[in-house]
Amino acid sequence: xxxxxxxxxxxLGDFAPEFAHLNDDVLFGEVWSREREMSAHDRSLITxxxxxxxxxxxxxxxxxELAKRNGVTKTEMVELITHLAFYAGWPKAWSAFGLAKExxxxxxxxxxxxxxxxxxANHGPYPLGDPADGPNFTGHAWxxxxxxxxxxCSAGNVTFEPGCVNRWHTHPHGQLLMVTAGRGWxxxxxxxxxxxxxxxxxxxxxGVRHWHGAAQDSSMTHVAVTPAAPGEQVVDWQxxxxxxxxxxxx
Length: 250
Prior knowledge:
Elements: H1 7-12, H2 17-31, H3 40-54, H4 57-69, H5 74-88, H6 90-104, E1 130-131, E2 141-145, E3 153-160, E4 169-170, E5 175-182, E6 184-188, E7 194-196, E8 201-204, E9 210-214, E10 220-227, E11 236-237, H7 243-249
Antiparallel strand pairs: 1-2, 2-3, 3-10, 4-11, 5-8, 5-10, 6-7, 6-9
Helix pairs in contact: 3-4, 3-5, 4-6, 5-6
């Protein structure tokens, strides 16, 4: 899920507050957050394609940076621009490649060439599900949704590979975690980290910052139950916990 957007309020909050609200809270807060219908990765590719086709290069630059955070690789961006050159125009492709080189050119390694995640054998009673890799996890993760899109209470079986954790984040109505396999950690802001094992149940209250994920030597699977009103942003992603502190937990 996309990190909470504030660009509209930061730049236009005083001058055009309604536009700022629509940009930050509706476009990014509601539309971009519907990752069960389309991933942030795919939304970024589509958005970059549209902006390049229209020749809106200042906006394209910022969306290329967002695309990189959403897991789009240099190979994918180069292929997108090459493909669109035949439909949107050769000069637009040249301009887009300049921006792409600034954004992706310094990367020595391409995520497309990264090692494929090893399947997790012990992932509890539910299927492993689909990859959930992206900007909000430090490694590979998978999710098997257990409720239909739009349900008043979302439930998903989430599996983290060993050492993978997510960002600090909050939920507007709290979140219930029920551990079904492996071993991991959960920490609420102001509290000590707590070890999680199968059978453990944790409830994080509304608006309280927390993070969770797998131990260094074990994968972890939990069912995450998250209440949400229709169209409501169910999570506000923030920064990652300190990697050294997480590694020390074991």
